[in-house]
Amino acid sequence: MWTHAEFVRNVIYNEETAVAYLREKNLLDDPEVVAINCDKCGSVMKNKRRKVKGSFVPVMRCPVKGCQTFKSARTGNSFFHYSDLNNKTNCKLSLCQILDIVYFFVCETPIKYAEVITGRSHSTLVDWYNMCREVCTKIVQQKGQMVGTTTEPIQIDEARFAGRRKYNRGRLLQGNLGPESTDSEAEIENNRNHGNRIDGPWVFGLKKGLDCRYFFVDRRDRNTLLPIIIRECAQGSVIHSDEWPAYGTLNSHGFLHSTVNHQRHYVDPNTGTHTQSIERSWLDAKIKILLTMRGTAIHMLQSHLDEYCYRMMRKESVDLYSDFLNDIREVYR
Ligand SMILES: [Zn+2]
Asked: How many CB atoms lie within 10 A of CB 287?
């Protein structure tokens, strides 16, 4: 992936380089390659540049005399050219500014640092990070069913994504990962593995290698979890879990289910069943998500889970920025 300095030189040097890059990546149409018609007279538009505040901005223009209607070069991609609720096109930011924010999102730059680096306001960054997270959501939702095999079973588990109850009034963990939260992690683990399970917010997870899918659920009873398992896992899949009763009927639903008893073993000595991979992943996800979400309302949790799962899915990407833009194209074109 490009360093930020290379990215500035190659992509966001000015609006013309930004448009050229997006056209090369097929995120925007070039009217001289793909015919784009004038909204007024239907003629084929041409590339033009317009001077805005002292610098050139690429636009499309109708060549017909007396018409000469302009169209934004962003037309056709609602990620860069989205309409607000009043159907007014929102173009407060230049393409360079948007692409720059996307760069910092891809790099997992905390919003407070992205504010300093880009000079954009806190609320602008929050909006654009949310837009990026929507891309993650749509991409992870497109995944087909998981297939669990004997050598690579699907591990399922539930975890509570919150700190101590007394600090948890409708909001997620306040973000201290100091001694206090080490403490509450221990409490979560303890409650999860040894009966006496406390109430939500719960996250139900399925994991097989880099394919992980996490869902925010109100309850972790059979009526809630079974439909998710049936939706996400192919029939005949091998599934490993602990002995939580909600999983008790999986075999009668066409899965090959085996369990490990956490009170006695970590890895079942007879069946080899274990759920260590998902348990490690929980801890990793919790720390990351709770840190970025501190003080964020609970209804945002699912989108943060989707971002986490998206990043796992793209973990082996050598150019995440480029891949993320491809994913924007997938979702918004
Ligand atoms: Zn025209």
From this structure: 14
